[in-house]
């Protein structure tokens, strides 16, 4: 079995990096081959742009979707995108390790989605959601936040965590993944020591607890029940939810 | 009066660029000075990273929040961030023009949030939400999507647009903005001509309709009722929603 960890944090000594190492160790102990895409360390370019497509379908007007499709067909995808896709093709489980910045993933990780999940190659109009390319595989977000857990409930000050993570979870659903409920490390305050948890006994204790939680969750990666999303059977021919489908609301309100 | 348009699309002949021009023309006709931050054309760097902070508060361990705060205090913020902040300080209205990519803003625009809304300089623990730096100013997202409007309702195939835009709207609320309901141009299919609407009569007609809608909405920028978010009066001392506060759910379900 294979696990891919997509890691997004600029600081090698961060809480996030420590959790990445916990994820890698845990999955190796379970017998997995583990690969890490360390986006900052690799200098990944998160900006989808014409410069990635020297062989254009349309040299005059740039459309990301048109060029992704064309490059998929003609085997001219950028080398870094090809590398990430090869890792994804191997991975039974994908772990995303990142901090919440501005109520979402950092730009570096968002751009990984923009560039790597290529139109044509990895999805088409009919090959999405529960018919998506990666159906049967699993994905999980392991996320740090900078505020206490209590502030992330419905209407809470920091924003409902189930709403903040909804878009990235839906993107993973779009690609066919079974998405596990996220592992949340709240209150990772860089104000308390600049993420230098190594030098701070209280932070070191918090980190140890978060590491235990992550390791326990990953140990159950095959048996945990995935989050619920609507799929093809739930939509009519206009892409609208059929009457009587209730899984959707339950998910949006039930994730935190 | 001043308007800042933060524009995020790689193609100068795109639908998005045309809507940006409509926004600029509309606001100039209303007597505004209009500035455009064209993120792709300017080569904006969306990656928050150590390289932006030559004068570090902590040279050993990088924390974005710590370094933003330090650079704000010591007037060593990066030149591009200082320029964006100066534009924001002038702007009575900020218009964000972007396509939905992977259920959110493109990485280029997400990184503008990550880098420009600096800790210390533009917000602190107590200077947020309805006490935020930009309180009294207004912001609006003008957004294109690649699928029909019907698919963006609750449980719809493309994802509920009110959930997809919730994080970016909440970030604007966090900074103190009154956030107007978004202007949505659905079904902008690059598959139909690679965004080259100039060459396609049907697309040109759609674009004209979207331009009219955007111009009409912007003409009412001062009088439209902003979206509802919880604020300081709605939270207890733990940052949890007080009992009996109902505006939150109304917003989440009512935006589309």
Word description of this protein:
The structure is a homodimer of 256-residue chains. Chain A is built from 9 helices and 6 strands. In chain A, strands 1, 2, 3, 4, 5 and 6 form a 6-stranded parallel β-sheet that branches. In chain A, helix 1 links the parallel strand 1 (2-7) and strand 2. The relative contact order of chain A is 0.14. By secondary structure, chain A is an alpha/beta fold. In chain A, 36% of the residues lie in helices and 12% in strands. The two termini of chain A are 29 Å apart. Chain A has a single domain (2-219), classed as Flavodoxin domain (Rossmann fold). Chains A, B: GO terms for molecular function: NAD(P)H dehydrogenase (quinone) activity.
Q: SSE order of chain A in H/E notation?
A: EHEHHHEHEHHEEHH
The helix/strand class of chain A is alpha/beta
Oligomeric category:
homodimer
Number of DSSP E strands of chain A? 6
Provide the residue-averaged pLDDT of chain A.
91
CATH superfamily of chain A: Flavodoxin domain
- The parts of chain A where pLDDT drops under 50 for at least 5 residues are 191-196
Number of domains of chain A: 1
Intertermini distance of chain A: 29 Å
Find the biggest chain interface: A-B, 70 and 69 residues
* CATH architecture grouping of chain A: 3-Layer(aba) Sandwich
> What share of the residues of chain A lie within helices?
25-40%
The outline of chain A comes out as globular
Return the CATH class of chain A.
Answer: Alpha Beta
């Amino acid at each position: 079995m294979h696990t891919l960890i997509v890691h997004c944090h600029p600081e090698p000594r961060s809480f996030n990096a420590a959790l990445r190492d916990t994820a890698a160790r845990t999955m190796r102990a379970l017998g997995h081959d583990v690969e890490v895409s360390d986006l900052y360390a690799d200098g990944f370019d998160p900006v989808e742009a014409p410069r990635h497509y020297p062989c254009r379908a349309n040299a005059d007007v740039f459309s990301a979707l048109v060029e992704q499709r064309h490059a998929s067909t003609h085997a001219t995808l950028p080398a870094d995108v090809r590398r990430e896709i090869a890792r994804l093709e191997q991975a039974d489980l994908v772990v995303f390790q990142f901090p919440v910045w501005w109520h979402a993933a950092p730009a570096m990780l968002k751009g990984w989605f923009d560039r790597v999940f290529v139109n044509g190659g990895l999805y088409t109009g009919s090959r999405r959601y529960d018919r998506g390319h990666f159906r049967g595989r699993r994905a999980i977000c392991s996320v740090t936040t900078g505020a206490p857990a209590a502030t992330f409930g419905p209407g809470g000050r920091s924003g409902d965590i189930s709403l903040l993570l909804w878009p990235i979870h839906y993107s993973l659903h779009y690609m066919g993944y079974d998405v596990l409920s996220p592992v949340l490390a709240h209150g990772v305050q860089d104000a308390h020591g600049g993420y230098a948890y190594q030098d701070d006994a209280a932070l070191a204790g918090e980190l140890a607890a978060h590491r235990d939680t992550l390791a326990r969750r990953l140990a159950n990666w095959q048996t945990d029940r995935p989050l619920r999303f609507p799929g093809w059977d739930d939509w009519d021919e206009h892409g609208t939810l059929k009457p009587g489908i209730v899984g959707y609301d339950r998910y949006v309100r039930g994730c935190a």
